[in-house]
Amino acid sequence: MMTSRSIRSSACLAVLTAGLLASAAAFAQVTVQDAWVRGTVPGQTSSGAFMTLQSADGAKVVGVSTPVAGTAEIHEMKMEGDVMRMRAMPSLDLPKGQTVQLKPGGYHVMLMNLKQPLVKDTTVPITLKVELADKRVVEQKVDARVRDLTAGNMPAMNHGGEHKH
Known about the structure:
By secondary structure, the protein is of the alpha+beta class. The chain has a single domain, classed as Immunoglobulin-like (Sandwich). The chain has one helix and ten strands. Strands 1, 2, 3, 4, 5, 6, 7, 8, 9 and 10 form a ten-stranded mixed β-sheet that branches. Strand 1 and strand 2 (46-55) form a beta hairpin. The longest helix has 25 residues, at 4-28. Residues 1-28 form the signal peptide. This is Copper chaperone PCu(A)C. Keywords: Signal.
C-alpha cells in the first residue's frame, strides 16, 4: 500500500524527470560540432570562435557569452566591392535541417576584450543563447578547443566603423 509520502515522492520524481527530458529535447534541437577558437599571443585582445551548427526544427542564435572575453558577438564577414568587411549581427538563423558553418572568412563568434591569452590545446567555455522554433530561449553550452594561432587564417578585413571593439 502506498502512503501519501511515497505518492508525493513519486510525483516529485515524475515532475523532475519530465523537466530533464524537456531540457534534453530542447538542447537536442541544436547540434554543435567541431567547436574551436583561434589561439592568441600575449597582449592580443580579440580572437574568433568557429563551429558547425544545425537545428532539427529551425532556431536562431540570439546571443553568445564566454568568461574569457568582455564581449562576445556573432559577426559576419563578407566582400563589399574589393574590401572584406566585418559586422556584428543581432542574431543568426539556423534554418530547419540545414547546416550553418561559423568559419574564418564568414559567420563567426567574435571574442573581444580578452581577459587572458588563449593557449593551444586548452578549452574555452562558450554559451550560445538559442531561440527555438517555439520561441523558447535556451542556453547551449559549448566547449571549444583552442587551436594554433595560424589555424584557419582569415583574409585581411576592414571593420569599416560599423561597430566598436
